[in-house]
Write a structure and sequence with these properties.
By secondary structure, the chain is an alpha+beta fold. The chain has 3 helices and 9 strands; from the N terminus they run βαβββββββααβ. The structure holds nickel (II) ion. Nickel (II) ion binds next to α2.
């Protein structure tokens, strides 16, 4: 089922998630909903808080980005749908890279963000098998962005103070519910329709 995506300004995007402790039917159902919601919005990554869940997991799917230079050299098994439960960065490379990011919870805004180019991520897949992946380029970028969501951090927290100042008005309007997207949005309580 496609779930409406929570938008900038919604407190759910600022909360810290709880580690997943059990493989339940509800968890598998949540994973299916997250994949369907991400695909429905043509996104390449989605974290649980974005659909209002405090479970510590994200999904990603880079198949839409096939052929992009940032995916060169990526293990093909990481290009399709991927579920990362209780993810943790076990190692970050020293090389930093600037790359443009966007977010389904912050429609129509894209900014350059600096992050390590390479990481090693440990997580459980949806069968609860432990996996370690060593990645660079776009997968590393998406994983770090999604992991931030699980800590209540958004990419706009990581841009320069000047850029943030320039975006302040648009973000304020967004948190008041003045925002549109071509996928369903869950506007912060009281944001929509209050006159
Ligand atoms: Ni995001």
């Amino acid at each position: 089922m496609v779930i409406p995506i929570h938008v900038y300004g919604d407190p759910v995007l600022r909360a810290k998630t709880d580690p997943v402790t059990q493989d339940t039917g509800a968890l598998q159902h949540l994973i299916d909903d997250m994949l369907e919601t991400m695909h429905g919005a043509s996104g390449i990554g989605l974290a649980a808080p974005q659909i209002g869940s405090m479970e510590r997991l994200f999904v990603m799917d880079l198949s839409l980005m096939q052929g992009e230079p940032a995916t060169n050299g990526t293990d093909p098994s990481l290009m399709g749908p991927l579920v990362c439960i209780n993810p943790e960065i076990v190692e970050s490379g020293d090389v930093l890279e600037e790359f443009e990011e966007g977010c389904l919870s912050i429609p129509d805004i894209r900014e350059m963000v600096v992050r390590p180019e390479r990481i090693t991520l440990q997580f459980l897949d949806r069968t609860f098998r432990t996996r370690f992946v060593d990645v660079g380029g776009l997968p590393a970028r998406v994983m770090q962005h999604e992991l931030d969501h699980l800590e209540g951090v958004l990419f706009t927290d990581r841009i320069t103070p000047l850029k943030r100042r320039l975006l302040r008005r648009r973000l304020r309007e967004m948190s008041r519910g003045n925002v549109e997207a071509d996928y369903p949005l869950a506007l912060a309580r009281g944001a929509a329709g209050r006159l």
